Amino acid sequence: AKTWKDRKHYTELWWEPNSTRGFVWLDEEPGPNVSWPETSPPYRVSAVPALKSSDRMARILKEGFEQGLREVRWFVMGDDDTVFFTHNLVSVLSKYDHRQMYYIGGSSESVEQDTMHGYDTAFGGGGFAV
């Protein structure tokens, strides 16, 4: 929540109010004197902020699913400094059956990570889709 004011401009580059659907997930409320900008996605606060980022991401996916959103085929997660090209993202994801499991991704830019985890391991980088 504390870094959103410095990072929101990345999301506002691709977020289309009344067209794009989603949330910014925060670890705490923004604060009593902070007004949430209409140009940003609505926010949610994770019910149980976890210490590990992997636990936090799994929890956010679960809580996102529990929102009961209609006609959602994919949950896409990205870092707060990730810029999505939503039309391209929708075009690529529409080629896949959302009821099936896929493992799609690219190698890390870090040779050390590739050596440690294997060259056939996809890395999250700027985001992922479930």
TrEMBL record:
Gene Ontology molecular function: glycosyltransferase activity
Any one cellular-component term (Gene Ontology): membrane
The Fringe-like glycosyltransferase domain, residue ranges: 70-129
Membrane topology designation: Single-pass membrane protein; Single-pass type II membrane protein
InterPro entries for this protein: Fringe-like_glycosylTrfase (IPR003378)
Source superkingdom: Eukaryota
Protein's cellular compartments: Endomembrane system; Membrane
Keywords: Glycosyltransferase, Membrane, Signal-anchor, Transferase, Transmembrane, Transmembrane helix
Coiled-coil region list: none
PANTHER family: FRINGE-RELATED
Name of the featured protein: Fringe-like glycosyltransferase domain-containing protein
The organism of origin for this protein: Opuntia streptacantha
